[in-house]
Amino acid sequence: MTSKTNDTNYMCHIKARIESSPNFKNGRAQNRGQ
Predict the structure, then answer these.
(1) Out of the domains of life, which is the source (predicted)?
(2) How far apart are CA 20 and CA 32, in angstroms?
(3) Closest CA to 19 of 9, 7, 32, 28
(4) How many whole angstroms separate alpha carbon 29 and alpha carbon 7?
């Protein structure tokens, strides 16, 4: 159970880092354009 919580926190942390990157924002804008 503890490992699952840590895994969830890790995924949230990675997601936050990816979303804060300019490449991710550019990719989102392109997908929205389509």
Answers:
(1) Bacteria
(2) 17
(3) 28
(4) 29
Q: Which two tokens stand for residue 34?
A: 């389509």
Of residues 3 and 9, the one with the higher pLDDT is 9
DSSP 16-31: HHHHTSHHHHHHHHHH
Q: Which of 4, 29, 6 is nearest to 19 (CA)?
A: 29
Q: What are the distances in angstroms from CA 11 to CA 14, 15, 33?
A: 5, 6, 27
Q: Count the helices and strands in the chain (H runs, E runs).
A: 2, 0
Half-sphere exposure of 24 (CA within 13 A, CB side): 8
